[in-house]
Amino acid sequence: MNDLLETWKTIALYLLGGLVTILSFIGRGALKRLEWLEQNAATKADVAQRHRENLERLDRIETGITGTHTRIDDLYRDLLEKD
Question: What's this model's pTM, rounded to 2 decimal places?
Answer without folding.
Answer: 0.46
